[in-house]
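JOB MANIFEST
job_type = single_chain_structure
chain_count = 1
residues = 126
[input]
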Amino acid sequence: MAKMTSTTFRSKLRVRGTVARDSATNLGGMRITSGKGWTLSSDAKPEPPKKINPESPKPKIRLEKRAGGKYVTCISGLHTYGRVKLDSIAAQLKTSFGTGGTVKNGTIEMQGDKVKLIESWFRKIS
């Protein structure tokens, strides 16, 4: 592919900021669009959203107050994943939020009031 200088590139642009049809292929299927600043957009179709499996377990998140006025966020309903997967999820949550936690009887327990953070984390990964 020949090196495109700034003058040849500018000559291929229209006044409004869209690339001429013949030069769109030179940009690998990308086109420059008008608007605030210059952006590159692709003609490729966006990938379809992930389908949520209705059979997958739904986490139930609740806040418990323990002795000494300490709060613990409990995540239950994921016991069908098994101990190894629960330990993995707990480790990810602990590193994400910088807090302690454990897995007991199929329930993940995180130290502190982390209900909103955990809800947003589960939304993000699903």
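[summary]
The chain has two domains: 6-42, 60-125.
Helices lie at 6-11, 21-24, 83-97, 115-125.
exit_status = 0
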